[in-house]
Amino acid sequence: MSQIFIPDATNFPATADLVIIGGGVIGAATAFYATRAGMRAIVVEKRAALGELTTSASLAAFRAQFAEPENIAMMQESIAVFENFAALTGADIGLHQQGYLFVTTAEDGYAKCKARVELQRANGLDDVELLTGDDARARFPYLAPEITAATFRQRDGWLSSHELTYGYARASAAQFFVDTPVIGFCRDGREAKIVGVVTPRGEIRAARVVICAGPYAAPLAQMAGVELELQNTRRHQLTLGKHSLIPRDAPMVVDLDTGAHWRPEGQGAVFGWSQPEPPSEPLEYVPTDWEFPARVLDGVARITPFWNDVIPHLKRADLGLVAGQYTETPDLNPLIGATQIEGLWLNCAYGGHGVMMSAAGARLFVDWLGGKISVAENSFRVDRDFRVGEKMVL
Ligand SMILES: Cc1cc2nc3c(=O)[nH]c(=O)nc-3n(C[C@H](O)[C@H](O)[C@H](O)COP(=O)(O)OP(=O)(O)OC[C@H]3O[C@@H](n4cnc5c(N)ncnc54)[C@H](O)[C@@H]3O)c2cc1C
Questions:
Q1: Cis omega (within 30 of 0) for bond into 278
Q2: Which end of the chain is more exposed for a tag (fewer CB within 10 A), N or C?
């Protein structure tokens, strides 16, 4: 059984096989897989609770509809874990498999969607439906007449990122030290080797330390002597509490042409859209921009015009706005594996996909740590060449 607590002098100095820095969804998932593999793990989280930074800003949606084989494989594995989560951990993560619907109004939209689906099928994802605009409107009558094509996958959907994080944590055998920031690294004599972490409460000695610190991954790695090419960029989530026009059985609807997206949440909805933003330092509290709600509502009204009937009646009190940071590598894939410094490992930089990829990413990290997989089997290793592709950022 895991323990989540504020440690005191009786717990320090502590030792473990693995220290995990950061108690977001990635740190919690890492603890789950590490302790299942027999490691003694301690998670060190600077906040008073788990999943309070980027994880809490997430729309908590998941999809296997990627274009890249490595991402499709990660997501097929993660979704299978989510589907089996209650049996695996005893936790109810509020799974909603209402699908992801990508739509386009492009003239050549059908050909583009067809090419996407063919690529997905070639990469082992054979349950994505290709729809004409008319087929899509017959299934989802609230779609705009301008939509020329769509792709849909029923097993995509969303969950509760809070329940997922605590589900991993509670089902792990790790200790979670909250209110305990890492402020330095223990080194082995004059060697560069990392052998633990320093906190204001004392040291925790471990042969392996992994950084799962979300936007703080790069400054922590730098403290250890490793430079990471990461960028943090602000992203918003808008919440609308309740409205009778919102179809509660709708899927996540994504504008393939712009990236604007929404999905139902209870009797309301949540919205997201990656807007151009300058990169910034990691932030404990990410300020919100109240121009975002109007922009994103206009954005989704283009593909689902019933929003035009909702917008004029909205009051600010109906809306909730939060922001967090995407932490991204140049190729927008995570960093999973060893650094050049012995004892220091990474499982971080998941951008907009940390909730959905948490299971497969943490499983991959733990297998890599245990020497169970070869270099060729880890597309996300830290020393890879970043191939900057054209990837849709949601
Ligand atoms: C608006 C928005 C929408 C999103 N929507 C989705 C989505 O629909 N689906 C999806 O899969 N992903 C989504 N994401 C991305 C997802 O939220 C992140 O990829 C994921 O939460 C990253 O988890 P993490 O554990 O790496 O980071 P975090 O949740 O940031 O956790 C890192 C933890 O490390 C702790 N920490 C930092 N420094 C230290 C230190 N020195 N000592 C101790 N602890 C430390 C922090 O306090 C924090 O708790 C979204 C993100 C945003 C911002």
A1: no
A2: N
- Answer yes or no: is 383 within a domain: no
Q: Phi and psi (nearest 5°) for 182? A: -85, 125
Q: Establish whether residue 45 lines the binding site of ligand 1, counting it when its CB lies within 6 angstroms of any ligand atom.
A: yes
Q: Is 361 in the pocket of ligand 1 (CB under 6 A)?
A: no
Closest ligand 1 atom, CA of 234? 53
User: Are residues 342 and 290 both part of a single domain?
Assistant: no
The reported pLDDT for the residue numbered 390 is: 65
Whether residue 111 is contained in a domain is answered as yes
Distance in angstroms (rounded) separating the CA atoms of residues 272 and 260 = 6
pLDDT at 389: 65
Of 328, 355, 389, which closes a domain?
328
Q: Could you tell me if the CB of 254 is within 6 A of ligand 1?
A: no
- Is the CA virtual torsion 358, 272, 238, 236 positive or negative? positive
300 lines ligand 1 (CB under 6 A): no
Instruction: Identify whether 65 is part of a domain.
Output: no
Last residue of a domain, one of 294, 312, 328: 328
Q: Strand 335-338 to strand 175-177: parallel, antiparallel, or no bridges (unpaired)?
A: unpaired
Residues 261 and 363 in one domain: no
Residue pLDDT, tens place only, 110-143 = 999 999 999 999 999 999 999 999 999 999 999 9
Is the distance from the beta carbon of residue 27 to the nearest atom of ligand 1 less than 6 Å?
yes
Rg (C-alpha) for the chain, rounded Å, is 21
Q: Are residues 319 and 240 in the same domain?
A: yes
Domain of residue 215 covers: 3-59+162-229+330-377
pLDDT, tens only, 140-180: 999 999 999 999 999 999 999 999 999 999 999 999 999 99
The domain spanning residue 173 has which CATH number?
Answer: 3.50.50.60
Residue 350 main-chain phi, psi, to 5 deg: -85, 0
User: How many structural domains comprise the chain?
Assistant: 2
Residue located nearest, by CA, to atom 51 of ligand 1: 58
Cβ of residue 59 lying under 6 Å from some atom of ligand 1: yes
Distance CA 393, CA 28 (A): 25
Q: 215 C-alpha to center of ligand 1: Å?
A: 7
In a domain, 299, yes or no: yes
Using the mean position of ligand 1's atoms as its centre, give its distance from the Cα of residue 24 in Å: 6
